[in-house]
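Exercise 7 asks you to align residues with tokens for two separate proteins.
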Amino acid sequence: MAPSNNVLHALSTRLPGKGFRGARFAVAACAYVGLWIILYEAAHLFDIAHSASAWYPGPGLTIAFCAVYGPRYFPAVILGAFLYENTFTYLDVASGLRHVIVYGSAGLVLRHLIAPTFPLQTKDHVSVFLSVACISTLASAVLAGAIFQPYWTNSTFTDILVSFWIGDMAGVLLAGPVFLITFSWLATRGWTAPTGWVPLASSATGIGAVFIVVLGVVAFFIDASLGTNGKAWFVVLFPVVLLALRQGFGGAVAGIIVVNIAAVLLFKIFGRVGDPAQLQVLLVMIDIAALLIGATISEQKATEQGLRASERRQRDVAAAVHASPVGTTIVNAADSKLPFVFANDAFHLMCGYGPEDLRTIGLADLLAPDSQQCLEEILRAIGAMERTNCEVVLRTAYGAGVRDRLTVAPIADSAGGPVSYLVLHEDVAATRDRERLEREREKLVALGQLAGGVAHEINNLLHPMINLAKDAERMWDEQQDMRRHLRTIRSCGVKAADIVKKVLSFARQGSDARTAVDLGDALLSSVDLNRRSLPPTVEIETVVNAPTGCILASRTEVSQVLTNLVLNASQAMGGRGAIKIVLDLVGGPPASFGQPTTECVRDRPWFRLSVSDTGPGMSDDVRARIFEPFFTTKPLGEGTGLGLSIVYGIVKDWDGSIEVSSAPGRGATFTVHIPTTNLCANA
């Protein structure tokens, strides 16, 4: 397990020498030694005879620690076993080595056999844990007998073996599951225990614990009165098993902890009754039985939950298929008549037959005589376990045929045989109606785009006309010459009429012939027009470096392009800033343009028109969508998002290209490349 995923590593990173193995090892050793000391002292509190504890939880701690954290922290176990109450005599050293080797190895074996993230979550996991516990405690007891028998002359080898085996086994059964759960929680981020595998602090657990204690008291006094030598404690098995049956493995863990502590406390309070060793054996048997029963119940509950979840998913799928607007059926592929196994509501509505009717007929019965060729194709596909598509005429209960486009796909069983086939039914007439409605909708959308674009362009021309008309009215009152304003108003009106003419021409599927336009002259005229319509806080600088040259276009299109670019720049600057317009001549199209069309030879000169502003600029996301129709960054009602898309369309119609370069806080520059034409001399 990666150390970054556990609490020990998280704690070690706060120590000096962050990231070094020594720091992580120090934290692991401190944590293990601290728990070892607590458990060692707790075991002595529950001594039921001289130097004989009811259970030794240390082996359970070691097995759980090594099982969860693995060999990387194994040296911490060595330190823990030798640092506390170890005089380093032969017996202490031998006992420490016995504990480290046997139970440390048992933990690593357990880690290898079951998942370390949450070791106990199946009945097989619990069986493996109990097997490892039995074998390791027996091996440890054998070694203890061999080590201590020469020194404990009052005890036989068998006495030592049984004493250590029972005490260690009881400790592993009690402490092992608890620390496996605890260390798994500490070692895993976002850990969620499977339902039923951890003890729950609930009223049912509390009632079960009280029931166990009451029967334990009864068993103790029966044992004391009748001298049954621990046999009366069998009655405690029932509440422990009942708790395991009710709450699973977590309930079993809680139950065996309560019964063991209750038994030892009764011995400590009321004195020793009978042979404690026999009672320990009985409690170990109760522990093993409860853990196995609890694991079985938890696994069964998990299986039931999985089945219920699967049933819910199946119901959801069935409901979704029934609610689908696409006719869906399942047919039995083993019968040539293809009887229906399932049909959803859409198919019932399509064919007019109810569920009872479809039980006696098959898909082959509904096909019209002229669809038999399609039936043969379906049967061939079934034999080859292939998918197929065909169009048939389906006879309905309404008395009329329905053109049905079938999509047939196999549903294989667990053995791989084609038991059933899924059939999707598409009503061809309904589909064509939907396609017709979609085309009508697209026409309306196109009409809306056209109307919006026309309104946008004419509004750009009406704006200077209105302003100049107001100014002319003032000049009339002051008896000033207003003929220049009137000429500009007339020019705007002519251009608006030209836009309307182009719209009408487009609506009639007509096309205007291109003419050679002097780009420099058209540019200066358009700049003069736009300068009058912009706020006085916007400065326009025009630089024309190109000699006289023409492009195939119209003066109205040139005005549309420049007006939209200038208006966009002014709005981006909030009506305050500087706009720079530069026109020059370059040797050819930009590298990003690709291969020009046949009319635009690469070695022909190209115009480069750039419009720059001092606005806030734009992000890469906005720049990527800037030419999309209806895309705008302006508030609702302040922009249509059509201006730049119209510019893009006009430039592409000129066989040119348009690009934008910008960055937040650095303004924006629109660069238009337009091929020149040799027709200028004839213009």
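Second protein for Exercise 7:
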Amino acid sequence: MQFSAILTLIALLGAWMSLTHFPAYAQDRNATRADEAVLDMAQAYKQRDRKRLAALLPQARGSVLEPWAAYWELSSRLDEASPASIQEFMARFGGSYQEDRLRVEWLAQLGRNRDWVSFNREYPKYRMNDDRSVRCYALLAEHLSSGADVNQAVTDTWLTMKEADEGCTSAVEQLVKDHSIKSHMAWLRARLGLENDRLQVATQAVGLLNEGWVGTVNALYRNPGKYLHAKLTALRPKTRELVTLALVRLAYLDPAKAAAEMRKLRWKAQLTQEERSWVWGAIGKRAAQKLSDDALGYFAKGQVQHMHEDHLAWMARAALRAGRWDLVPKAIAAMPETLRNDSTWVYWRARSAMQLAKTGAARAEALRPLEGIAGVRGFYEQLALEELGQRISVPPRPDALTAEEKDAARQNPALSRALYAIQLGLRSEGVREWNYATNLHVKGGMDDRSLLAAADLACRNEVWDRCINTSERTKTLIDMEQRFPMPFKTTVLARTKQIGLDPAYVYGLIRQESRFIMDARSGVGASGLMQVMPATARWTAKKIGLTDFHPQQINNRDTNITIGTGYLKLVLDTFDGSMPMAAAAYNAGPSRPRQWRGQTGSPVMEAAIWAENVPFSETRDYVKKVLSNTTSYAALITGQAQSLKARLGSVGPKDANLPETGLDLP
């Protein structure tokens, strides 16, 4: 452990002792031993080693993280724990994240066991209210006890869940049995499952209706063409739904083949308008994700009122890409209100109205909706600000935090425990407890001043991800220096000056990649501040002449910055200085933005449209955030107002007369 981290732990432990009135000698004699026991318990909990957890628990007594130790031990045996032992835990650690975390696990267990008396007693005490499965159990309990109409709430929750789920599925199953909702909802859920390549979602939904149909769903998932070829008629509702599932699956695999299948007379005649429109929406969506020029033609064959919101979003994107401003408002108008009011679609609806306006008065009216979203908070908010004739500048800092506000954050037990866990190496646990304290402990979360104080506490302890994320939650007060910190400034500025790279771009990328966590490691193996893959690090080290590089150095701050910026500069040069394409390449690999920019003859488009059409949702979000971050950092670094639109520029195919470079980039 680094010396600075040790000092931080000592300071945090001292703060904790002052809060909990532990005798001073407890720290001296037992703190290190107790912390070691907690770390061992964290591993034992991951392995679900109940015996090891029980043996270690006494050794964790007195640790700052004892609530975690007690939670792990009880959670691991919750299925056999007595209600008395659970209530004892709740009383001992009342008001803590661990209490509410155990409660939600217990509620899920009570729901599975149909113990509605205990469930209804405990549910009102559940503070986080962020578990959708438990929410569905609560709706089911309400329906069973009073006959309340919970249909809309259950189906809305169920249809938005990406993975197979137990609580909402149980609620839907009961409502279908009671004839409160139609079986069509289960088929919709199955369609969404296959459309997003989640077979378990589809089979679980269809299994609610009839377990015997699951085998057919598995078969059409494996080979939708074979299933469709064998079906000459689809007159019964069940058969039509299964045919629709097969067509949706075929659309995912090959939208052109699905379109050809849909042109067959038997499906035109036998499927309903709703079924045909959904399938055309799925075909159009998949074609749009492949950047096919045929996408809009596919969408046109269906009726928008029968399409899913994902279809409509991709219809709007395809229309933007094709320059069909007249179709953009049609797609957006059909979206659900919540999606329609998202800043993305407020912006593009206004832009389309401006493009279609015939008079100056009409153009001025088209701009009006942008006034409601314009600001410095994000990508489309910044673009809206520029459309209104302004640039992105740093707003005045809020009034300085008072000593009392800082003390309140420092003395918050959950925040102190979260920082202690993070410094000890239990980042996941620390982050969850921190988020609970700031967002969920009280309904609506902390107020703006309290959030700024909590963010300040994280900043001063150099826990940059909590500093940024907490400050970003404020609603009216904006502290840009908290939201966009610049750790390691001397190193970053020196390195970027050396290789001719915009420091704001580097900071914007690091902020999105790692939130300045030096030992960050992604699920695919990327490491460090700039999340460099091992193979990329080795290749880049050779390319930039870093002859003494060894793989274990990748988490070293200066080495990671040297290699990460070196690679970013090579990528940026390959894409002729285009920040959006370089960001996409950094996230998804350089071969993909080469495809996404189009081939010779493809249109040149503004980069905001190009970014919105990036097929991968993660990369699409990444590009927009990196460019927005970059603009904010530039305003902070230079002290001058900035333009996001200028940084975006335009994107189109590479000039065929110029040689392709960077083909060896990993």
